[in-house]
Amino acid sequence: MAANKNTNIFSLIIFSCIFLGLLHLDLVNALSPNYYDQTCPNAESAITSVVKKAMLNNPTVPAALLRMHFHDCFIRGCDGSVLLNSTGKNKAKKDGPPNISLHAFYVIDNAKKAVEALCPKTVSCADILALAARDAVALSGGPTWSVPKGRKDGRVSKATETRQLPAPTFNISQLQQSFAQRGLSMEDLVALSGGHTLGFAHCSSFQNRIHNFSSKQSVDPTLQSSFAASLQSVCPAKNTVKNAGANLDSTPTTFDNRYYKLLLQGKSIFSSDQSLLTSSSTKALVSKFASSQQEFQKAFVKSMIKMSSISGGQEIRLDCRAVN
After folding, report:
1. Other beta carbons less than 10 A from residue 298's beta carbon
2. What CA–CA distance (Å, rounded) separates 95 from 205?
3. What is the pLDDT of residue 311?
4. Of the candidates 14, 120, 145, 151, which lies 20 to 30 Å from 191 by C-alpha distance?
């Protein structure tokens, strides 16, 4: 009996040690808003000034940085792999079809250069991109927030994996599945879709709604008629203009809740936007965010922190475009 008792106590001690070890491992890997306080205290201000300068030269930079961060996090976690260039043997994810229109990579290069001058080999490219996306929102009139840091940079980037990104043609169940696979809820889906308050869409991403929509209807009937006509005028059926397209909302350089207001008026760009109105729970959130900028911003910040905490990666890259 005594031997049995000792065995149980020994087993408990071993289990406790393993549990504490795993807990320690989890804490070591956990992100923290204070991650660089000792090792690179001026990193954030250096990144912000680079983003600010780039925005002054090109007002499309904020939308580009926000989209780049989304596309990074949705494949292999937020590991900066979207920044890697293709090599002779490998076509990287930045060259996958959904990412061909990503731009402003030079902003991350410039931010990395500025940070390396302050604290070499310390701040990951993945963290720089997460911080730059936050700055893009804040400098466009949106909310700011404390970004948890400590991401590592990934060494794998495959163009074929970009098919995992949610497409602009997705319906609500496809969107829900895509977000759920990444631990994101329906509220996260609706809040993060609000990122479409910034930016521009090429004709190819919404052509399905304005030409040959179905066998019975040429145009998606959920589109407001004069708005559909305006989209058809910039994107004719046989469009040959390479950069033709439309702004995602009527204030494409201001981070506001206009996207949700226009969505309720039948003036959304993507099928995936419109699909948010096909479920009662997501439609209620669209209405909530359309009527309150404050509620939208609060939800957006919460969902951005959640999404940008999907981790991956193994190293601190010296050059954001190439593995060490």
Report:
1. 14
2. 17
3. 85
4. 151
